[in-house]
Every structure is written in structure tokens, then in C-alpha cells.
């Protein structure tokens, strides 16, 4: 498989994949080896190649191996390639990039080629799966033998994809859909596969027109697992009892730039750089930032707080806390609470995050939140993100004068947010800096802004 970037600075692909273009990278796997190298690495065009060298002899040597000695596993993309994808590009697949976090949510012009993939249903299935995700698909059926055309077509295709997409999303699409095409996973299918499907399908699977086909094939039509997956997909769409699903509207509005992914990645990266080993996510919602923090062993104590009991239930379900290993379970705690009342449980943290939270508070209540967070809880660092109102005119689906979310009490301009943040920092002994979240427009700025507060040298935590 090859991934090619033709972006203005194409070598940024190396940062996103966490693989230096100057080196050959080899990883030992239970079924063979995976190699990553770059066939081209210039500022105009960079191509990363993933080659999985499956050893069919090793597959049948173990007493419990059921693989046939002769098979297509060394030659065609399969679940072996998917496992290698997760192991070799795991950091990119998780949406992390410590050195260049701003790249995670950046759409790049990508070209992806999978030389041989077994496609049940032929080229048409490839188009049905990838075109709704925004790809231009070229799928070429392969003959069984070019010297004997009478033998007919094979079940194999050469797949080429082109799109302006983030590397994180592209890898997530491949991670889920390659096993869907193949249908012959080499490992046992259990409940953990539902978790992986939900995790890597987040943001796109629920709205995919072929989601039923994807879920059934990915889980090998195991009825109990398929039912669980559909129940969780349906639950993802229920935001409140009114059925209006306002949060879903906001996500749909911002989806073209995968702004949510970039927000979460940027906040987690900043907290990591600040050395925050203990973090409280204030207004954690359904646990998306919590999931990212859990994936990084540098965060040893994680607390998620939300005023909504329902949101905490969904977060617990999505994080699979009831199935989590005891050692991991000790790292995280979910609590119900309000940002408007002093709470001893919020004291003693290195870092706190308020990701798209403050705009849900009535302006007269901001002062109470400021005292709770910056005076009473007083973490060493506080990261706050909020929408930039100036950018709203660039959203095609947003009427003039409307806010992005029906529950937003306000949306600030960049100057208004900066004025508020500097006043808070001065009042409580913090220093503050600002960053863009998402692609910046020359006139209107970025879609969101982030303020990073750190206690001044003379301040006491």
C-alpha cells in the first residue's frame, strides 16, 4: 500500500506518520514483517510505502493454526495488512502528532493505492464504500492470468483513492474497510472488535449509506456483536430527549475540516508538552478527550466531570470502563458536578481542559466558573477552546447571525476572547497565550481559538 501527499509541503507526511523519510522502518509481527519506506520524499511529492511480508509457513506451524498452507494472504490486502497498519501507524491512527499537532486536522491532497485487494462484489463495492467518504475511486478488476484470459476475472482489484482528507481519517477508513472487503479476518472476533469499529468509525460510520454492510462484514455477521454495534450507533445519534440532536448539527457543520479531531489532538498535545500528569476534563461530555488522554501513558490520573448524568453514562459506555483492566481503570474517574460551584474534587491537578464549554454558560455565570476553576481548583495549567464567531460566515450551512449550536449562549470574536482571557489571567495570577484551532482564513481567522493559561512563577497552585 502507498500513501502519497502532494501538499505544498509534502514531506509533512513524515511527521504525521511518525516515520522519517530517510530511514527504512521494519517491525516484527506474529505473522511476518512490516516494512515502511519512502519511494519519493520531496516538498512537492512524498510517497510512503507499507509492505507486509506475510510468512505462510509460519502461519501453519503452530498446532492451533487453521490457515491453509497455500493461500492468497502474502499477496492480497487482508486483515494482516490492517493489523500492520495499526501497529506501524498507530500514533497517526490515534490522531496524535506531538511535534506538529496542528497538522492532525489539516486536509491534505492524498493518493492511496492498494495494489491487490480481495473485493467481494468487485469494483462496484469499492465505489459504494469509499465514494461516500469523499474519495475519487479507481478500481480495476484483475484477471486470474493475463496469458489465459478465458479463465475470467478474479475476485481481486487494484484500488486507487484520491481525496483531500486528513491522514488520520484516511487511515481510519482503511483500517475499517479493508477487512470489510476481505471478510476473512485471521483472528477471533469478540466484543473488542465492536469497540475498535466504534472507535475508528467515529464521525463517519453512522452517516455512511452502506453502514449495515460495513458492520455486518466487519463483525463477520456474528448476530450478538452486530446488534451491539447497531445499538451503539443508534445511541450515538441521540443527543437529548427532544430528538433535535443539536450537537449532531454542530458536528455536521464542522465535519468538512474535521475540526473536532484537531481540537482534541491539540489540547492533548499541549497538556502533554506542559508536563501535566494529572488532568481534569471539565465538561467532558461523552468522553472524546478522555479517550485520547487514556491512550497516552504520560497521563497517570484522569478525571472527567460533567453536569449531565446521561453524558457520563455514554462516556462510561464508550470508554468501556466496565471491561477495562484494573490497572487502566485506576487511571480514570468520572464524576458529576457543576462548574458553577466550588468542588474539592477538582483540586490538585496539573492541568484542566474546557473544550468548547464556556460558550454554553450564560454570560452572568462566567464569573462563578472563573472562581471555581482559576481560584479554588487552581490547576497549574488550564486549556480553554471556544468558537471564533468571525469564522461563521464561511460555513455554507449556517444562516447569517445564527450560532453554531442551539445551546450556545454566546460566541466571541477573537478580540473578545482575548480580552476575557487576559482579564482572567491577570485577576488570578496566570499567564496566557493563544493558538488557532483549524485552518485559518486570512480575514476571519481560524474556526476556533485556544487559550493556554499557566500559573505565573510567583503563583501558588
User: Can you count the beta strands?
Assistant: 14
Q: Based on CA inertia axes, which overall geometry fits?
A: globular
Helix count from the secondary structure assignment: 16
Q: What is the strand arrangement across the widest sheet?
A: 2-3-4-1-5-7-6
Helix content: 25-40%
Overall pLDDT confidence: 86
Distance between the termini: 50 Å
Biggest sheet features: 7 strands, antiparallel
The H-and-E topology, N to C, reads as EHEEEHHHEHEEHHHHHHEHEHHEEHEHEE
β-strand percent reads 15-25%
User: Structural class, please?
Assistant: alpha/beta
Low-confidence stretches: 237-246, 252-257
State Rg.
24 Å
What is the element layout, followed by pairings?
Blueprint: E1 2-5, H1 12-17, E2 25-29, E3 32-41, E4 46-54, H2 56-61, H3 79-88, H4 90-93, E5 108-118, H5 123-130, E6 136-143, E7 153-165, H6 167-182, H7 191-200, H8 211-218, H9 223-236, H10 246-254, H11 259-273, E8 278-282, H12 288-294, E9 301-306, H13 309-319, H14 326-329, E10 332-336, E11 351-355, H15 366-377, E12 381-387, H16 414-428, E13 430-437, E14 448-455
Parallel strand pairs: 8-9, 8-11, 9-10, 11-12
Antiparallel strand pairs: 1-4, 1-5, 2-3, 3-4, 5-7, 6-7, 12-14, 13-14
Helix pairs in contact: 3-6, 6-8, 7-9, 11-12
Can you give a write-up of this model?
By secondary structure, the protein is of the alpha/beta class. The protein contains 16 helices and 14 strands. It has a seven-stranded antiparallel sheet with strand order 2-3-4-1-5-7-6, covered by helices on one side. It has a seven-stranded mixed sheet with strand order 10-9-8-11-12-14-13, with helices on both faces. Helix 3 runs antiparallel to helix 6 and helix 6 crosses helix 8 (211-218). The termini are far apart.
